[in-house]
Amino acid sequence: MGWGTAMIDYKVLRTTIKEKCDRDTVKELLECLGVEVGRDYRFVENDSFSINKDGTIKDFGSTDFSGDIVSFMIDVLGTAPREAIEWTAKSLGVWDE
Hints:
- It is a single chain.
- The chain is 41% helix and 8% strand.
- It contains 4 helices and 3 strands.
- It has a 3-stranded antiparallel β-sheet.
- Strand 1 and strand 2 form a beta hairpin.
- Helix 1 crosses helix 4 and helix 3 runs antiparallel to helix 4 (81-92).
- It starts with 9 loop residues before the first helix and ends in a 5-residue tail after the last helix.
């Protein structure tokens, strides 16, 4: 605490994000980030990436990435962890600062 700002528990926020992210929600979030996703849940620009039924993202290509939307933003897009968590939480309406 301090300066009028409450401490944020990023682990709890990340868990809440994971609970809210099904396949269609992740598709919408990715499209907000400028990633085009087809009706088959494969990325249009790189079809080795796809969204699983549980909302996780998997690359069946060279990176072998597998993770949630926040991990994708951090590991693939290069977003800072705190920024990725905050943006996703705000986009889902589970945190309003």
